[in-house]
Amino acid sequence: MRNKSKDKLISLILEKKEDFYRLAYSYVKNSEDALDIVQESIEKAIKAHHSIQDNQSVKSWFYRIVVNTSLDFLRKHKRTSFVDENTLDYYSSGKNDTYQNIDLERSLEELPVKYRTVIILRYFEDLKIHEVAEILNENNNTIKTRLYRALEMLKEKME
């Protein structure tokens, strides 16, 4: 059973590696940090693969590890960055804007983490409500409520 869960975990990681990277990146907004988070998540998962009780839940179990590792990273690395005037002028002039939906991106970043996480998992990772609930270790109704509130908050910020 243990080898089956480890094999399933490894094939899931290989199959969904871009999704896990994108999820980590959505938290830290830095490619190197996102890669570190995914790598650390893989290490944690391989060490704890024996704790998987249901092979059907490997996907949500690993998503939960990535989310928790991302949140841990953010807590450990709360930092203020100081930028010189030239760099600030460069970015504020819009020369490097590549986002088509920059307002949505900014509004999403302003949401509290618990609401942003639900939006990211549901709409950007295309997970079902019950999968999001399993990842966040909440019940379905809590996730539905958070999702509704998050969408309302986004709507207000976008208007």
From TrEMBL:
GO terms for biological process: DNA-templated transcription initiation. InterPro entries: RNA_pol_sigma-70-like, RNA_pol_sigma-70_dom, RNA_pol_sigma70_r2, RNA_pol_sigma70_r4_t2, RNA_pol_sigma_r2, RNA_pol_sigma_r3/r4-like, WH-like_DNA-bd_sf. Keywords: Sigma factor, Transcription, Transcription regulation. Pfam families: Sigma70_r2, Sigma70_r4_2. Residues 19-80 form the RNA polymerase sigma-70 region domain. Residues 104-154 form the RNA polymerase sigma factor 70 region 4 type domain. One of its GO terms (molecular function) is DNA binding. Belongs to the sigma-70 factor family. ECF subfamily. PANTHER family: RNA POLYMERASE ECF-TYPE SIGMA FACTO, RNA POLYMERASE SIGMA FACTOR SIGV. NCBIfam families: sigma70-ECF. This is RNA polymerase sigma factor. It comes from Virgibacillus salarius. The lineage of its organism: Bacteria, Bacillati, Bacillota, Bacilli, Bacillales.
